[in-house]
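FIELD: query
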Amino acid sequence: MTGSQPVEVAWFGALCDDDYEFLGVVEPERQSSWHHCRDIVSAADRHGYDNVLLPSGYDLGIDATAFAAAIATHTTNIHLLLAVRMGELWLPQLARQLATIDEFSGGRLKINIISSDIPGETLASPQRYQRTREWMRALRTLLSGESLSMDGAYVNFDIMPPRIRTSHGTCPPFYFGGFSNDAKDVAAAEADVFLTWPDTVASVAATIADMKSRAAALNRTLAYGLRTHVIVRETEAEARAAADRLLSKLDAATGAAIRQRSLDATSVGVQRQAELRDSASSDGYVEENLWTGIGRARSGAGAAIVGDPDQVLAKLNAYREVGMSSFILSGYPHRDECDLFAKYVLPNLTHAPLPMTLSYDGVDHRRA
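FIELD: result
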């Protein structure tokens, strides 16, 4: 079964000041900028990656929406997975911006839904995810070219869709992840691709089973994606040495400060990444080829697949076997690891972008 179905392979755009040779050691030339991030995305496009995540950070790095509009005209084939924070912008303006970027890219836009607090505002989890649910429904309506009439707790509009339409005439797929029950319920009802962070294969399988059950109760199907780091070298010893080198200049205080910068630093998902680190062996491995050291200096996805090309491929295939159809990968430095993964692993993965129309009507539209 493994390899019989294409998987989407995406890279990471590093827009949020998250690029290092040594974790925690800031180098001005690796901080997010148009030139640095363009170089990473352009390399991923040339190498044949299917998609690229353009992350959003309120006070970190550069603006993801502005960058997506610009990079759309500098790339040819790669899809653009743009992270959008629900509640941050005026909703009709956001719909117009997204439709415009989709036109710029020739229909290559995909949307990563982010449900987080907004600076200066804190909502309890049920209210925050209710806002996210309403925004997702409203955006899907407008980006499908339909009039919106909604009287919700957070969305109150009776408006026509923007004149500009997406290239495919439908809303781009929504990629969305979360580990709380509130998040999972919203994902089951509104998302197309459910994203999860690195974990043991068994734990990822359990998460997929849970989400399949939640979606089926709503007569829906989802695709599933894994956001993880990778460190691949010609030999396992070289890969492990590269992992150790990455942490060689990090002190505990700097790592803790980096982890606390994120607005989601106390989320259920971040707590799970901390649990993985705590349960790992003394060298940071929680299971074969899954290393948790990166989480010492990163909020969010905090583990890496580490090994030689065959080991990394085998680990990805193990996740495929339990239901993963998309991988969003990164590594440090991001441009260097992008090149290495493309050299050693990408040619051995049958891959293609997930289709633009997925499963919102309850039917799985992925490749037969």
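FIELD: remark
The radius of gyration is 19 Å.
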